[in-house]
Amino acid sequence: MSNKSKASYTLGVLIFIALLPLSFYANAQGFTFLINSQYAWVIWIGIGVAGLVLGPWSNDLSSDKLLAIGILYSILPLTVYGGESRGLQFIFLAQHIEFAIGYWVLASLAWVRYFFSLKAINNG
After folding, report:
1. What is the pTM of this model?
2. Digits of tens for pLDDT over the chain (124 positions)?
3. What b/e sequence results for 55-80 when a residue is b if at least 16 CB atoms lie within 10 Å of its CB, and e otherwise?
């Protein structure tokens, strides 16, 4: 597999994991976000996988892809939705600050990899 296709798959996995908490399922009572369901543990697995993908041993992401991932993971915890009669509410920050912190840690990994390339660190 070429580095270009490997980087595309890596970017796709990171975007999928980023949007995972915004997925939902519908039932008779309405819809429920994955983050508010009994399956919230799936998000923790996704955060772990994204941490491994963004780790220092993965060099297949270009700087523009790292910039996009850094922005996505930085802004996503600030997502709001219009609750029934309660107005706008934060999805992460209202009840799940631990997920927001996990996403911001991943964003910081992407930002560090963006601003400080591994080649510059290894070459001294």
Report:
1. 0.77
2. 666 677 778 888 888 888 888 888 777 877 888 888 888 888 888 888 888 888 766 677 788 888 888 899 898 888 877 766 667 778 787 788 888 898 899 899 889 888 886 555 445 4
3. eeeeebbeeebbebbbebbbebbebe
